[in-house]
TrEMBL record:
Xref: SUPFAM superfamilies: Transposase IS200-like
Organism domain of life: Bacteria
Listed name of the protein: IS200/IS605 family transposase
Source organism: Micromonospora musae
Originating gene: tnpA
Location of the Transposase IS200-like domain: 14-134
Length: 138
């Protein structure tokens, strides 16, 4: 069960939803240095805020990044992903001219694919067991 501080309320719901996202660079090329990743974190934090989401954790390497995002149920993860990748690509290209040669085919920094995994407070086995143990009306 999520910590009480992690539970938020919407107009018609109570929620605690997190997603783990991984984005890789086009062709897995080594692109990022620490300064790029530091700026990217700030950019992605702003994009999340625009979606009423929160970037909880961010880290990366020279060819990929990991994000842990807390998001509301009204938000489609695919819309958030498209915005995170699009805005970060555009802003990094503008702010770091040294990255321009890493943009391939139609100025794309990121691979077209991504990983998204739901993350919760309890392992699936615990949730499954909890549901199995609920009493059915008899």
């Amino acid at each position: 069960m999520p910590d009480i501080d992690d539970i938020r309320t919407g107009r018609h719901c109570v929620f605690a939803m997190h997603v783990h996202l991984v984005f890789v660079t086009k062709f897995r090329h080594n692109v990022f240095a620490d300064r790029h990743l530091t700026r990217m974190e700030a950019i992605m934090r702003d994009v999340c805020a625009d979606f009423e989401a929160e970037l909880i954790e961010f880290n990366g390497a020279n060819n990929h990044v990991h994000l842990l995002v807390y998001y509301p149920p009204k938000m489609a993860v695919t819309r958030l992903v498209n915005s995170l990748k699009g805005v970060s690509s555009r802003r990094l290209r503008q702010e770091f001219p040294d990255l321009v040669h890493h943009y391939y085919q139609s100025n794309k920094l990121w691979s077209g694919s991504y990983f998204a995994g739901s993350v919760g407070g309890a392992p699936l086995t615990v949730v499954k067991q909890y549901i199995e143990q609920q009493n059915r009306p008899g």
